[in-house]
Design goal:
The protein has 218 residues and is an alpha/beta fold. Helices cover 39% and strands 20% of the residues. The chain has a single domain, classed as Ribonuclease Z/Hydroxyacylglutathione hydrolase-like (Metallo-beta-lactamase, Chain A). Strands 4-5-6-7-8-9 form a six-stranded mixed sheet, with helices on one face. Strands 1-2-3 form a three-stranded parallel sheet.
Length: 218
């Protein structure tokens, strides 16, 4: 998220300037260098991501927004951006490099445990649907928002765990477990998210997650 650091890293692999920046969503660790890049490049984001930045009084609002999909053609290379649905937030972009059969999923992809940002339109149900749409793209390599490089099997496993965690929460709610109790009782050695990062997923996502699943069961 540091403008100078990113520019230095780019310069280490290419003498060409940065012309476009795509924000995968509004969180500061994915858009924190916007103010600097607006001096030298155009910033692209989904409309909801820009709205979230505006509401959060963030600096460096994107000048180019899209709703469903967009594409950039530069140097004979096509780069596509898709909004495949809600998930981590309501403004997630999946960046697709068709020539390389590679996608960047932003925080829709995570190698330890995801965070559902319910304050900004996050949805576990939407996330599953978005991952299914992502898997319909022709790619071999996936870059997550956090963690190491992934492949199609990794994303399939990620989706399956999202479904399993949703099912586990539904079981707890049907059994009468309260929201406060659910963050402990949902922990399961077979569900790595519930164990990862000292329970970060539980602490950050479970209150909203509980409410989402409870509403579905009504």
């Amino acid at each position: 998220q540091d403008f100078e650091e990113i520019q230095s890293l780019v310069a280490s692999v290419s003498a060409l300037p940065v012309r476009y920046v795509i924000n995968t969503h509004h969180h500061g660790d994915h858009s924190g260098s916007n103010a600097g890049f607006l001096e030298v490049a155009e910033i692209v984001a989904h409309k909801n991501a820009r709205d979230n930045m505006l509401r959060g009084n963030q600096e460096g609002l994107p000048r180019l927004v899209y709703t469903n999909s967009t594409a950039i053609y530069l140097g004979g290379v096509e780069v596509q951006a898709f909004h495949l649905g809600t998930g981590h937030t309501n403004g997630d972009s999946v960046v697709y490099f068709p020539d390389l059969k590679t996608i960047h999923g932003g925080d829709l992809l995570h190698t330890t445990a995801p965070f559902l940002d319910y304050a900004n339109g996050g949805s576990s149900r939407g996330w599953v649907s978005t991952l299914n749409a992502m898997l319909a793209l022709d790619f071999d390599t996936a870059i997550p928002g956090h963690g190491g490089i992934m492949n199609r099997r990794d994303i399939l496993n990620f989706r399956n765990q999202m479904e399993s965690v949703r099912q586990r929460m539904a079981e707890l709610i049907r059994a009468g477990v309260s929201a406060d109790e659910a963050s402990e009782q949902i922990k399961d050695p077979g569900l790595s998210w519930t164990q990862a990062e000292d329970g970060l997923f539980m602490r950050r996502s479970v209150p909203g997650f509980y409410a989402e699943i409870a509403a579905e069961l009504e």
